[in-house]
Give the backbone structure.
Amino acid sequence: MTDQSDASTRVQASPEKRFFIGMLVKDIELLPAILDLVDNSVDGARRLRGDDPYDGLEVKISINAECFEISDNCGGIPLDIARDYAFRFGRPQSVKGTPGSVGQFGVGMKRALFKLGKFFTVDSRAENTHFTLSVDVDEWAEETDPDWTFTLSHVDESYNPEGDQPRGTHIIVKNLHDTVAEDFTSSQTVGNLRYQLRLRHREAMDRGMRIVLQEEAVTPFIPQLQQSDSVRPLFKQLTLNEDEKPVNVRIYAGVTDAGGPEEDDQAELFPRERDAGWYVFCNNRLLIAADRTTLTGWGDGLPVYHPQYRRFRGYVFIDSAYNELLPWNTTKTGVDQDSRVWRKISTEIKQAGSEVIQMLNRVKSERQNAELPDDRPIAQALTRAKPVRLGEISPSPRFNYPAPKAVTVRPNMRKIQYSVEKHRYDAVAEALNTTLVADVGRRTFDFFYREQVGDDE
């Protein structure tokens, strides 16, 4: 019988570094990789400030064809964390993350650095430690020692910052991959990164953090819904318990202001249609934005998205100190649909969406069938509603709005529909002192009929 401890029975299973690096970065795109590095700064702010405001904290990002650079003053990485965890590929079970943090899997920073280029330097100053790590990726990949390590080029275990020298982390990546260097010269890349930052880190900025891209501050995305005495968004709160661990969920559903034409066939003129849909956040990190797919019920229990629903907005906030329960994928760019938590939440999402969709269908019916503004109580109520931030909305299990008015449609009526240049329409609407497209159409028709045909009464 063979001794199972004998070396002859062992099979080599350690990974090859280049293969590992290639697989690690394969499933993440460039912008999400950068957002992972910003996640680390936000988590540092959470460790540093807890529930207090982030005023004075800042993240700066600079990109060009030569290098990528990100720096923050969010507390830095303590030396013991750097040695034992921060640069390991995967989080050991014994290491517990900061409650409510975004980081979970222990791969984000390393994956982002490998995604960007072939040489990186991480310099971090914490409360009383300072280290610098520089890595030539190609040289590191050539090392054959099965014990994977990095070597710190500078260590100060009794660091004492002078004056107001900030505690934080500074990362530079050089020898960028060709495609990354090419993307970094594109104004579209910069614009898309700014858009993603304002969406996905809006909570940190709302709490006072300043995020700067290319020396220009990013303005946060502030979710709002229309509300008035007669229009009230849906706002549900629930707690899910998974293995006796709580997951807190907040669901908002309602509409935004029109901001464009009333008719569906003019939806291309509606400036904010791309923002319609559901937004899902985990620990205040945006996972999906403006979703109008079966993931959130569209075309699966709810109607397939149509421009008549372009005012719809829904927001889901999923929070837990137990990050492993949150329904996000490893790149934090989507939802893990196999998550039990997500399956429970998706049922609530469909129900909330159905209430708003029903209202929007009734608004369309009013527009098509009602002759007078008084016959359109829902549309009139929405016109009077004002945008409010989510924090100002009180809990409500239903989406509330006025009851529709029964309207008798006369069979001898005809609907007229046409398009005109926006500047001409705006001039006529201003002259008529109205904001309703239907009102402009009816009154201009009445004018022509009165002047050219004559009154038939």
Observations:
- The mean pLDDT is 84.
